[in-house]
């Protein structure tokens, strides 16, 4: 009845077709199953997209918004489907009689959801997942203070060597450099850090200046900046945890420099893992005090002494120049140099001060140095003081001296904004004959440059800032008796004698109420940005009537004190990064000339500011909360010279209004247009600009952004337009969301366009030809042009128009064209001949172009014709992203062959191509090229051991015996990025990145390169290339192709990364591989076809080729057909190798070569001829093993030789062991690291192997070469060994010579998912692991013991694990004990043992153990390794000793397990 009631409505009519209803019922199972399949497909698709997102984020790329929305949509759908399938469907299947109505409904929903998923899958076919990031800012690098580089003194060389030696010593974690002030400690620290990094001792170097007053938050900030880590604004403890986690997760080695340490700093308080922890950093500190170095428990302290007399004199001569060689000056100069006492900072400051000075100045200087005025500065040497004081005295002007003393008002190691020196100096009237702010600014910048040249100031990494050496600052403070720098108000009775007071602290407290400071001209109170609310005393300023400069920074208060009104002489007032509600009192300061609210939170400007008739500068930059500027305020400021309103969004009133609105109109700018010299402003609509506004000053500087609302700028200079606070800037104009006609109608904009050095256009409507429609004069001043999201643009230059300027973009340096979907050509029309020759060129366009960036210009077929390209001699960077129709970068356009030889881009350094699917080459100057037959280019096939033949011959004459030719059906290759001609066009290319080019088959095709083997002509190709990155090139078969013997090039390539090139056959032919002498990093992933990394392509002996001698790391992952690094027995000299990562390479057998040297084999055959042959046995490979090892009960010792033979054909084949089927004793095993490779890995620190199914042995130690008297030491620098999911791994270490030493620095041993492994190490190996700290063994089904029973009586049994502090044993169903013998009973450092899922474990070792620090055994894993996290409560058991505890924990579990197994 229920069914019928569902089919028939109350009127008795059929409303739901019976066929459809029963159709859903009958297809219930298929609909549900189809939904499950679709759900699986959706999950797989999401995982694939997420993988690309992860990869993009790793590369700092911006994820496309539609991709993020799709992922979010998939997650929402998946969540609903999970509930639908696991709850709704599952409930309906329970019971014997399911509800048919419900089943029909579920079937219908399943079909609907499957269709929905189908649509989502279609939506997920993304051509672009992410956008390449803008060029990153220059990385923070540690540089020496001298831009000319480090000055090497003979006496300093032993110190550098001592520190570098300490860096290499694993027993030394902290090194201290001490010495007097100005001796060169910081410079030395920076130089040894640079050299250590160059020598690959560290992956990263970070530095923090500690200074006299230790500030942990500041130290953390400096370290985080250098690590590229963004710290949260939280407590010091949480920030320390962030830094700690960043350093612990990374496998990189890090050197941390603490500079200028005055008191003990605990590295762990900062977040630095140190001494005894995995991934612990090395620390280098500098201090004036040797005692501080000892307090910090430095393991090594080196002391820097003064320079020798000869070094000091030579250095002094270098500073002052040739003038000291004159007879009358020479003796005086020698005396002056001696008075500097060999102290570098004294020599530099005095030398620079006396450079090119007359004799009387030299005499006066010598007198000053011999009779210095006594100054009592603790810890400051009197010679240093007098030298710096002399340099100050010899400054040419009082203005420069005043500028120097102003710098002493800022904290130690502070980045001092030069603009502060300008505003403070103008306010105090320090500069004579200055009429405008611009003149003052230019003069101060010149003075700063001179002070830097005198070494009284230093360069800063911040824009428009300088720094001051702490010693120079101390001397400056002592000179300026009338200046005082405070960190808090002191209990002085009076400050009446001071002309300047600077108080800088994180928190200002206890402001005095009524200070009497009649001489005070400058007061600076600063406590960072937006700190807690302050209360300033009402009478704070009452006794400061002479104050000329007042700077309040980072403060918060409701209103200014009433006493502010007494400051009638105030000329400069800075209220920066403050929160202020009422600033109306400023209106009473009638002489005020400079007023800044930079970064302050202020909602409206009070009308009273309009009373400041002398105001020359008003700075409202970054006042993002400012909404209201009262009408009439700006028009009253008739003397205003500079107005800064960057990143301020005010709703200006229309210019034709009556002034009755809430805000001013831009028409008020006309009242000071005669004096205006600097303008930074945001305008929501160009219609708000007054039509008659004309800037009368031809020297005006402007940064104007006109758009209707803040736009989403995605790229480099667009996104950072208002982010920097610059006061020396280029004329810049941003126009967004307007029509070209509106721009053309504005006389002011037309005038600004002609003067602009930077123009950014976004979403401009209705214009096709940029050059003609925006500026008929050809943009004579333009340096940077960026155009985006403007659908109508078809050409940048239309040369077919008779109105086109004869000079176009004459000095343009950067051109950026983005999302111009209808752009057809950058230059349209016939390009004139000889347009780039001579001073009077017919059309000089793009001749200074340095950077070209194209993004989503989908109709663009090429960038330029070769006739234009010929003039791009300044081009440095080329970025092309998502240009769907582009086929080539440059098109030939009828050029003859000789013209091609004249093309050259001598300055091109960087090429970046992404998502250009139809690109077939850089320039297709030739037709298709057939593949070269195997005379030079072979596809080398796999070589089985039983295929080796004719090893007695002098040479393998027929290479084809071990190769396979190209199939006859292989099509010709025409899609090559660089041909033999175009590869020569950019001789200085340093970086090449190619992403997502679907049709590209070859990167470098060198066919046709002529090499004169007599040495008359040597071809050098891309000799400056350093970085090569290839990704998602689905048809790429070769990186290098048709390489002639004898070619030179690629010798500076240091980094290669190849991802998702599914048809790539191999990485490099050996003719190229042998050239890569500087290669340091190889990363190859997701390349399905690769069998070997290096492939043979000629008849040169493999033994003569050394592969990658400077390689420091290689990462190989997801290479399903990779079997080995190479087939041929090339020479490996990898002494610099630091990291090896191998992942998901199921066929990989060895990191070495698959066959052995024919030279060595011939020698072996000669020896074997003398041995009686046993017909029942075949020959085994002997001598140095290149991957394959033969295992007998006694190993592969000399006994193996006796049972080996050569067959009749002379082939070397495998030994067949009668125990072939015994899994514990296989007859042959492939070694990941064969003996010849182990010998050369002297600096290897990290090995991580995962999901490599064919690996059977990790380290082959049997055949290590050593002399009888010599103890062999191997892999001494290895610190981490991680082995995951290696199902066929049977041995980590295969027994080696008795006298072997090595592995002494291994700290972490982690093994997981190795199902064939029965033990970890033998006693002979275990005794070598003297630094082992952590053992982690999980999911290894066959492991019965961790430490194997001693196999031979002579094998040493006693093993000491002195450093092991943590052991994890999890999911080891057959583990019976740690060790079955009494040979590991001392564990002095063991703190934690975790045992989970080990039901057969009955004891640790059969003896009492010494574990003084062990508190118990855990049965849960600690999730976080951070020492700051609260410890998760875990179940900890302890029954007096370790054995008893384990017996208690697992008592009865083995029987239970056996019972469950039987069930």
TrEMBL record:
Keywords: ATP-binding, Coiled coil, Leucine-rich repeat, Nucleotide-binding, Plant defense, Repeat. Residues 1196-1219 are annotated as: Disordered. InterPro entries: Apaf_helical, At4g27190-like_LRR, LRR_dom_sf, NB-ARC, P-loop_NTPase, Plant_NBS-LRR, WH-like_DNA-bd_sf. SUPFAM superfamilies: L domain-like (SSF52058), P-loop containing nucleoside triphosphate hydrolases (SSF52540). Residues 25-52 form a coiled coil. GO terms for molecular function: ADP binding; ATP binding. Residues 168-321 form the NB-ARC domain. Residues 754-884, 973-1088, 1232-1341 form the Disease resistance protein At4g27190-like leucine-rich repeats domain. GO terms for biological process: defense response. It holds the Pfam family NB-ARC. Gene3D superfamilies: Helical domain of apoptotic protease-activating factors, P-loop containing nucleotide triphosphate hydrolases, Ribonuclease Inhibitor, Winged helix-like DNA-binding domain superfamily/Winged helix DNA-binding domain. Belongs to the disease resistance NB-LRR family. This is AAA+ ATPase domain-containing protein.
């Amino acid at each position: 009845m229920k069914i019928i009631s569902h089919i028939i409505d109350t009127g008795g009519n059929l409303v739901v077709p019976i066929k459809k209803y029963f159709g859903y019922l009958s297809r219930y199972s298929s609909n549900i199953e189809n939904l499950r399949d679709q759900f699986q497909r959706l999950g797989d698709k999401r995982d694939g997209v997420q993988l690309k997102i992860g990869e993009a984020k790793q590369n700092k790329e911006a994820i496309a918004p539609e991709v993020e929305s799709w992922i979010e949509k998939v997650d929402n759908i998946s969540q609903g489907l999970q509930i639908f399938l696991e709850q709704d469907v599952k409930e309906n299947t329970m019971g014997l009689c399911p509800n048919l109505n419900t089943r029909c409904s579920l079937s219908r929903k399943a079909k609907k959801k499957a269709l929905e998923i189908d649509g989502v899958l279609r939506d997920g076919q993304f051509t672009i997942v992410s956008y390449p990031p803008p060029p990153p800012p220059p990385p923070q690098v540690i540089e020496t203070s001298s831009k000319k580089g480090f000055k090497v003194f003979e006496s300093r060389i032993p110190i550098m060597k001592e520190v570098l030696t300490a860096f290499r010593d694993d027993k030394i974690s902290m090194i201290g450099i001490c010495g007097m002030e100005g001796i060169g400690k910081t410079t030395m620290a920076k130089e040894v850090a640079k050299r250590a990094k160059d020598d690959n001792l560290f992956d990263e170097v970070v530095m923090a200046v500690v200074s006299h007053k230790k500030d942990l938050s500041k130290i953390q900030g400096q370290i985080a900046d250098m690590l590229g880590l963004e710290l949260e604004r939280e407590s010091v403890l949480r920030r320390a945890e962030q830094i700690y986690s960043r350093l612990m997760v990374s496998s990189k080695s890090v050197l941390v420099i603490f500079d200028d340490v005055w008191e003990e700093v605990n590295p762990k308080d900062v977040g630095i893992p140190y001494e005894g922890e995995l991934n612990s950093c090395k620390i280098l500190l500098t201090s004036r005090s040797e005692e501080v170095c000892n307090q910090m428990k430095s393991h090594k302290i080196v002391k820097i002494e003064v320079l020798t007399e000869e070094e000091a004199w030579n250095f002094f001569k270098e500073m002052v120049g040739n003038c000291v060689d004159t007879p009358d000056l020479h003796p005086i100069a020698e005396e002056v140099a001696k008075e500097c006492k060999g102290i570098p900072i004294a020599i530099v400051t005095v030398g620079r001060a006396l450079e090119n000075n007359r004799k009387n100045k030299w005499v006066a200087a010598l007198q000053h140095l011999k009779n210095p005025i006594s100054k009592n500065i603790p810890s400051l040497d009197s010679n240093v003081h007098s030298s710096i004081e002399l340099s100050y005295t010899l400054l040419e002007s009082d203005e420069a001296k005043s500028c120097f003393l102003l710098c002493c008002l800022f904290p130690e190691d502070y980045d001092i904004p030069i603009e502060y020196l300008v505003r403070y100096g103008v306010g105090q009237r320090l500069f004579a004959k200055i009429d405008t702010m611009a003149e003052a600014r230019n003069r101060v910048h010149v003075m700063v440059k001179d002070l830097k040249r005198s070494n009284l100031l230093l360069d800063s990494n911040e824009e428009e800032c300088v720094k001051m050496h702490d010693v120079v600052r101390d001397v400056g403070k002592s000179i300026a008796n009338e200046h005082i720098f405070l960190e808090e108000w002191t209990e002085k009775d009076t400050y009446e004698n001071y002309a300047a007071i600077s108080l800088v602290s994180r928190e200002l407290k206890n402001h005095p109420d009524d200070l009497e400071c009649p001489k005070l001209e400058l007061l600076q109170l600063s406590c960072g940005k937006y700190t807690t609310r302050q209360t300033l005393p009402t009478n704070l300023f009452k006794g400061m009537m002479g104050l000329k400069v007042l700077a309040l920074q980072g403060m918060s208060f409701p209103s200014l004190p009433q006493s502010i009104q007494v400051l009638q002489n105030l000329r400069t007032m800075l209220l920066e990064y403050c929160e202020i509600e009422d600033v109306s009192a400023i209106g009473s300061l009638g002489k005020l000339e400079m007023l800044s609210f930079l970064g302050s939170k202020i909602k409206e400007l009070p009308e009273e500011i309009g009373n400041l008739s002398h105001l020359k500068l008003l700075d409202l930059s970054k006042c993002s909360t400012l909404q209201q500027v009262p009408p009439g305020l700006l028009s009253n400021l008739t003397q205003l010279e500079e107005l800064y309103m960057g990143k301020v969004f005010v709703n200006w009133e229309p210019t034709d209004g009556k002034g009755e609105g809430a805000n001013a109109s831009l028409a008020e700018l006309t009242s000071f247009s005669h004096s205006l010299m600097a303008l930074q402003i945001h305008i929501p609509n160009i219609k708000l600009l007054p039509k008659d506004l004309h800037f009368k000053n031809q020297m005006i500087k402007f940064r104007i952004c006109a758009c209707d609302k803040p736009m989403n700028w995605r790229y480099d200079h667009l996104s950072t337009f208002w982010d920097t606070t610059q006061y020396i800037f280029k004329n810049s104009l941003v126009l967004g969301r307007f029509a070209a006609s509106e721009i053309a109608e504005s006389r002011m904009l037309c005038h600004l366009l002609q003067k602009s050095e930077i123009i950014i256009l976004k979403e401009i409507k209705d214009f096709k030809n940029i050059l003609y429609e925006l500026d008929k004069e050809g943009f004579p001043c333009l340096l940077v042009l960026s155009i985006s999201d403007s659908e109508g643009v078809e050409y940048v230059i239309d040369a077919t128009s008779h109105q086109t300027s004869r000079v176009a973009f004459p000095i343009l340096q950067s051109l950026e064209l983005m999302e111009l979907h209808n752009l057809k050509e950058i230059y349209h029309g016939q390009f004139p001949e000889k347009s780039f020759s001579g001073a009077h060129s017919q059309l000089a366009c793009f001749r200074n172009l340095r950077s070209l960036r194209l993004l989503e210009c989908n109709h663009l077929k090429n960038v330029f014709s070769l006739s234009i390209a010929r003039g791009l001699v300044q081009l440095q960077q080329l970025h092309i992203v998502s240009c769907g129709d582009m086929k080539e970068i440059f098109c030939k356009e009828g050029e003859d062959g000789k013209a091609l030889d004249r093309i050259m881009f001598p300055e091109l350094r960087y090429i970046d191509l992404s998502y250009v699917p139809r690109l077939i080459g850089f320039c297709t100057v030739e037709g298709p090229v057939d593949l070269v037959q195997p005379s030079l280019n072979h596809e080398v096939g796999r070589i089985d051991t039983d295929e080796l033949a004719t090893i007695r011959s002098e040479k393998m004459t027929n290479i084809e015996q071990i190769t396979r030719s190209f199939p006859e059906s292989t099509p010709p290759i025409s899609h090559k990025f660089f041909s033999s001609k175009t590869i020569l066009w950019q001789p200085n290319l340093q970086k090449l990145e190619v992403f997502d080019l679907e049709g590209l088959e070859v990167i470098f095709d060198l066919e046709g390169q002529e090499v004169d083997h007599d040495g008359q002509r040597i071809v050098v190709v891309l000799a400056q290339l350093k970085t090569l990155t290839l990704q998602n090139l689905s048809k790429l078969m070769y990186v290098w192709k048709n390489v002639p013997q004898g070619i030179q090039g690629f010798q500076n390539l240091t980094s290669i990364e190849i991802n998702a090139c599914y048809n790539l056959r191999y990485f490099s032919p050996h003719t190229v591989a042998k050239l890569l002498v500087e290669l340091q990093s190889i990363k190859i992933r997701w390349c399905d076809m690769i069998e070997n990394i290096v492939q043979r392509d000629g008849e040169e002996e493999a033994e003569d080729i050394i592969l990658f001698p400077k390689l420091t790391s290689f990462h190989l992952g997801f290479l399903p057909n990779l079997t080995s690094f190479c087939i041929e027995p090339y020479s490996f000299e990898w002494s610099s190798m630091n990291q090896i990562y191998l992942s998901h390479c199921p066929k990989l057998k060895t990191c070495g070569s698959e066959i052995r040297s024919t030279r060595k084999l011939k020698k072996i055959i000669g020896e074997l001829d003398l041995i009686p042959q046993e017909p029942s046995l075949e020959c085994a490979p002997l001598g140095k093993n290149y991957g394959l090892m033969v295992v007998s009960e006694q190993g592969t010792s000399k006994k193996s030789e006796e049972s080996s033979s050569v067959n009749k054909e002379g082939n070397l084949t495998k030994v067949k062991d009668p125990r072939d089927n015994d899994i514990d004793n296989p007859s042959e095993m492939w070694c990941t690291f064969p003996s010849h490779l182990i010998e050369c890995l002297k600096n290897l620190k990290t090995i991580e192997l995962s999901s490599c199914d064919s690996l059977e042995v990790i380290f082959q130690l049997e055949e290590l070469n050593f002399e009888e008297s010599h103890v062999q030491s191997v892999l001494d620098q290895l610190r981490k060994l991680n082995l995951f999911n290696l199902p066929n791994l049977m041995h980590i270490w295969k027994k080696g010579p008795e006298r072997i030493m090595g592995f002494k620095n291994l700290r972490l041993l982690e093994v997981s998912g190795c199902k064939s492994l029965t033990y970890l190490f033998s006693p002979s190996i275990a005794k070598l692991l003297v630094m082992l700290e952590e053992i982690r063994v999980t999911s290894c089904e066959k492991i019965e013991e961790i430490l194997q029973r001693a196999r031979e009586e002579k094998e040493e049994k006693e093993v000491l694990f002195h450093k092991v502090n943590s052991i994890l044993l999890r999911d080891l169903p057959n583990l019976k004990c740690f060790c079955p013998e009494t040979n590991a009973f001392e564990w002095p450092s063991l703190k934690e043992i975790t045992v989970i899922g080990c039901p057969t474990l009955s004891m640790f070792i059969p003896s009492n153990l010494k574990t003084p620090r062990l508190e118990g055994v855990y049965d849960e894993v600690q999730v976080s390794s951070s020492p700051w996290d609260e410890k998760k409560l875990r179940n900890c058991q302890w029954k007096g000793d370790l054995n008893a505890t384990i017996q208690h924990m697992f008592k009865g579990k083995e029987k239970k397990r056996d019972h469950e197994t039987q069930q």
